Amino acid sequence: MRQIETEIIIHAPVGRVWKILTDFNSYPEWNPFIKSFSGKPEKGERFKVILQPPDSKPMTFSPVCLERNENKEFRWLGHILFKGVFDGEHIFELNEEKNGSTRFVQKENFSGILVPVLWKQLNNKTRRGFEMMNEALKIRSEANTD
Predict the structure, then answer these.
(1) Is 116 exposed, middle or buried (0-12, 13-18, 19+ CB in 10 A)?
(2) How many CA atoms lie within 13 A of 65 on its CB side?
(3) What's the rounded Cα separation, in Å, for the pair 38 and 25?
(4) Is the dihedral of CA 25, 64, 137, 19 positive or negative?
(5) Quick check: 67 and 101 in contact, CB under 8 A?
(6) Which of 98, 126, 136, 145 has the most CB atoms lying inside 10 A of its own CB?
(7) Which pairs count as long-range contacts for 33-37, CB under 8 Å and 24+ apart, including other chains?
């Protein structure tokens, strides 16, 4: 298994960041990595997501929601073709800092037989996609005062 993990400090309360993160209909307005999000992202439910890392073509997944804990965590598990070929557990974590800011962590655990072949591209383009999304979430959260 391999993992990509990124984080950013957002100078906004956890509740505001969570509200923006889970307003999936607004993703096309601000999110440079997750281009589209549709369906019901509740625990145990499938939904559709279109991801586009920088300098890459869009990829459509139909993951299942593993967890959705308000103001804390949202995670899903997606596959390419079928389980064991290329699996990705995508995780968003929000942690409240002592000064009222939010530590936003975005990570993904990759497993399956194709991961070693795709790792260089994942660790480059996908990591940059995470970082771009993190920065866009920071800008939107800090500008939005509810």
Answers:
(1) exposed
(2) 19
(3) 8
(4) positive
(5) no
(6) 126
(7) 33/129, 33/130, 33/132, 33/133, 34/133
The pair phi, psi for residue 4, each rounded to 5°, is: -110, 130
Average pLDDT of the segment spanning 68-94: 93
Both structure tokens of 101: 């800011």
Mean pLDDT, rounded, for 75-96: 92
CATH no., domain 2-143 = 3.30.530.20
Please state the pTM of the whole predicted model.
0.94
DSSP state of 143: H
Structure tokens at 95: 């942690």
Token pair for 56: 């890459």
Element (H, E) at 109: strand 102-111
- With the C-alpha atoms ordered 134, 20, 64, 51, is the resulting torsion angle positive or negative? negative
Closest CA to 24 of 10, 38, 44: 38
